[in-house]
Design brief:
The chain has 334 residues and is mainly α. It has one domain. 72% of the residues lie in helices and 4% in strands. It has 14 helices and two strands; from the N terminus they run ββαααααααααααααα. It has a two-stranded antiparallel sheet with strand order 1-2. α12 runs antiparallel to α13. The radius of gyration is 21 Å and the shape is globular.
Length: 334
C-alpha cells in the first residue's frame, strides 16, 4: 500500500505497512521478547496470554460499544470448565478444544448480551454483576462438573496436529498460545475497522443518532457480545489447556474486576490499549508481588492512580502523544 508525500516540493510515494501485518510482526516480537525475559517461567506467560484474550474480549463490549460490565469472567470461566470436561471425556485435540471454547463463549456471550444490553448505566452494571455471581455460585454447587471448591483437575490435552506434545517446561504451550493470540488479534483488527465495528463505535458515541440513521442498536450490541464471547471463550480454553486445572477463580468477580482494571490501564476502545494494559499490569504484578508479598497491592494501586491522573485515556495514549511530538519535531528540522 502506498500514498503520496511531498519532498522538496515534489510528490513521492510513501509506503505504509498494513495494520494486520504490523500486528503479526509486533505479536511475534513480543512473543520472542517474553521467551527471552522469562525462559524459566513460561507458565506465567501462557497465563498472561489467556488473560489478555479476556481483556480483549471485554474491550469489544466496553471499549467499542460502551456496555458497562463487571461479570465478563463468566464467559471465560464457563468456557474453561466446558473445555476441561471435554478433555476429560476423551476429546483431547487442542484445536478441537479451542473450537469448543469458542462455541461455548459465543453461546455465553449471546445469552449475556441479550440480558445486559437491554439496559443502560447502573442497571446494566448491576445486571452484569448478578450474571457473574450466578455463574460463580453454580460453579461452586455443581461439583460433579466443576469440582466445586477443589476445581477441575487432570486436564491433559493431546498433541498439536498429532505431532507437538505439551512438555513440562511449557514451551509448546507458549508457542501455541502466541500463535492463537496473533490470529485472534489480526481478526479483531479487521472486525473493529469493518462497517460493523465502526457502527458499534457510533452506537457508543451517540446511540440516539445511530437509531435516527436507521441502525438497529440492540441486535448490533448482542452480536458484538457474541463476538466478544468467542474471544473470551478461546482465552478460557487456553487457560484449561495450558494449566490443566480450572478453579473458581476463573469465574470469580475478582477476575472480571482485574480485566476491567487492565483495560482502563491500557486504554479502552483500543485493541492495542487492551494488549498493553494486560501486559504491563500482569508483569508489574508478577515482579512486585514477588518482591513484596505483603504490600504489593499498594504499589499496584499507586500505579493505577498515576496512570489515571497523567494518562486518563490509558497508556496507549502516551504512545500516540510521543509519536505525534516526534513527528512534529522531525517536520521542524531544516
Amino acid at each position: 500500500m502506498t500514498d503520496r508525500i511531498m519532498v522538496d516540493g515534489m510528490s513521492a510515494p510513501r509506503f505504509s505497512v498494513p495494520v494486520e501485518l504490523r500486528a503479526v510482526a509486533i505479536t511475534l516480537a513480543l512473543g520472542a521478547l517474553g521467551y527471552t525475559l522469562f525462559p524459566d517461567d513460561l507458565a506465567f506467560l501462557t497465563r498472561l496470554i489467556s488473560i489478555t484474550l479476556l481483556v480483549l474480549s471485554l474491550d469489544l463490549v466496553t471499549g467499542y460499544c460502551g456496555v458497562a460490565t463487571l461479570g465478563h469472567a463468566a464467559i471465560y470461566g464457563v468456557s474453561a470448565y466446558v473445555v476441561g470436561n471435554a478433555c476429560l471425556a476423551g476429546h483431547s485435540d487442542p484445536l478441537l478444544l479451542l473450537l469448543v471454547g469458542a462455541v461455548t463463549g459465543a453461546v455465553m456471550g449471546l445469552v449475556s448480551g441479550l440480558l445486559v444490553t437491554r439496559f443502560k448505566g447502573l442497571p446494566q452494571l448491576v445486571l452484569s454483576i448478578a450474571v457473574g455471581q450466578l455463574i460463580a455460585a453454580l460453579a461452586n454447587k455443581l461439583s460433579s462438573l466443576t469440582g466445586g471448591s477443589d476445581g477441575l483437575s487432570g486436564i491433559s490435552p493431546g498433541r498439536i496436529f498429532g505431532v507437538y506434545a505439551f512438555d513440562m517446561y511449557g514451551r509448546t504451550g507458549y508457542v501455541f498460545s502466541v500463535a492463537v493470540l496473533m490470529v485472534v488479534f489480526v481478526v479483531l483488527l479487521r472486525i473493529v475497522h469493518s462497517p460493523f465495528g465502526l457502527l458499534c463505535q457510533a452506537i457508543k458515541d451517540d446511540s440516539l443518532r445511530a437509531r435516527m440513521i436507521g441502525a438497529r442498536v440492540y441486535p448490533r450490541l448482542v452480536l458484538m457480545y457474541g463476538v466478544s464471547g468467542v474471544v473470551g471463550g478461546i482465552g478460557g480454553a487456553l487457560n484449561a489447556i495450558n494449566t490443566g486445572v480450572v478453579g473458581l477463580d476463573s469465574v470469580g468477580f475478582e477476575r472480571s474486576a482485574e480485566a476491567l482494571v487492565m483495560l482502563v490501564l491500557g486504554g479502552a476502545g483500543s485493541l492495542w490499549g487492551a494488549l498493553i494494559g494486560s501486559i504491563v499490569f500482569q508483569v508489574f504484578e508478577h515482579y512486585v508481588s514477588a518482591a513484596n508479598p505483603f504490600h504489593w497491592m499498594t504499589m499496584v494501586g499507586a500505579l493505577l492512580i498515576a496512570v489515571v491522573l497523567f494518562a486518563p485515556k490509558g497508556l496507549v495514549s502516551l504512545g500516540g502523544l510521543l509519536a505525534g511530538r516526534t513527528a512534529s519535531a522531525l517536520r521542524r528540522r531544516p
